[in-house]
Amino acid sequence: MTPKFTLSTQRLSLRLIEHDEAEKLRELVVRSPSLHQWIDWCTPTFSLKDSERFLLATRLNWVKGDAFGFGLFRHNDGMLVGMVAINELYHTFNMASMGYWVSDQYQHQGYAKEAVQKVIEFCFDLLKVTRIELVCDPQNEASHALAASCGAEKESVARNRFIFDGQPKDGLIFSLIPPSSQ
């Protein structure tokens, strides 16, 4: 998958965030306090250098085929509103882990659902995975609601499922499988 790969929905272009858009990413993260409690790299002190490092790592993962971080850009004005990412591909198990966030000012407008549904299609149709996991903090009810609205089934709480600020945390697991497997 080349870094120029793009997905499109009715209102959004989903693509890699370019290096020269690092300041846009930084501003979204800093101005989104609702994210700070759920995503450990999203902090009120997220700097331009942090943003540049994040984008470089995202690009390297994309080129290696290890992960795909899509910036969500509105068609009408090119505004970056959030991200949906295939955080990890587990080739041995033919599955992917997906994460998502939308900046506070763009929440509750359907962007996350629109983008997540498109990335689900990407996973099943292009990557040919047979399972997608969406792992959420058990307290993050907005994330749970989004996962469920996209057809994901709540499975379990997995102990020490992810790391937040260097500490293991339990994760609520939602999953999706291709429609042909149901």
UniProtKB/TrEMBL annotation:
Per the record, what is one GO cellular component? cytoplasm
Task: Tell me where in this chain the N-acetyltransferase domain is found.
Answer: 23-170
Q: InterPro entries annotated for this entry?
A: Acyl_CoA_acyltransferase (IPR016181), GNAT_dom (IPR000182), Ribosomal_N-acetyltransferase (IPR051908)
Q: Which SUPFAM superfamilies match?
A: Acyl-CoA N-acyltransferases (Nat)
Which residues does UniProt call coiled coil? none
- GO molecular-function terms, A-Z: protein N-terminal-serine acetyltransferase activity; protein-N-terminal-alanine acetyltransferase activity
Q: What is this protein called?
A: GNAT family N-acetyltransferase
Q: Which organism is it from?
A: Vibrio amylolyticus
Where is the organism placed in the taxonomic lineage, from the top?
Bacteria, Pseudomonadati, Pseudomonadota, Gammaproteobacteria, Vibrionales
